[in-house]
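Handout, page 2. Input:
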Amino acid sequence: MAVYERIAEDLRGPIRAGEMKPGDRLPTETALATRYGKSVPTIRQALGLLQAEGLIEKIHGRGNFVRRPRKLVQRSNLRHQWEKDRARQPDDIRARTGATEHDTGLQVDDLLFFAKYQEIRANSDLAAAFGVDEGTPLLERIYRTRYRIEDAPFSLVHSYIVSDLIAGNPDLSDETKEPWPGGTQNQLFTVGIELSRIEERITARPASAEEAEELALPPGTSVILLRKTSFDTTGRPVEISDVTNPGDRTEMLFTTHLERW
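Output:
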């Protein structure tokens, strides 16, 4: 075991044992170098290892701190039927809770929500996914939701709908109407669209620098990419969401009900 790994192991013990609490500040790099009789670069290697494990975080100008565990998001495929069951409920019922609350166990007042809408033209990827021509007008909806006591969103969401599909309800193109009680399934219901199936394709890759910064990821953490395609009762794709999920706080749960023999 390398010297920096032994130092990291020594620091790791009190954190995992709970002797150092989330938010506690570690000794300075200079103080640790003196304690272990090693150089500051060696100490930085040890601290970098703990950062990569998500045990500590370095705050510029302040030092290294025991990292506060992020709120776990458990995304289940059963959420889609839950959302459909609520899509035709009265406003007051739909407003009580949404998909994020469902996935985190939090309440509406625990969350901060941001939405931005813009019209774009379908690129080759989205055109193929929707079965439309390149350049077709789409409404892009960008969503960020975070826990009030945390500094990063649960995920990065980009949702797309063919603009002509929702032209019958101008409210669906108005970002000030967000957060929309009942979410996308209720929005589509207002223009006469019922969903019959949802397909979710999941991949993973290293986070980009921009993603790591916005999601406050420990170094080396991957992101889980989810493309959700919603189909109406005619089999037509009516909404596509690209969701970038942080690998350190996201759990995907899939439940498959099997028919009995």
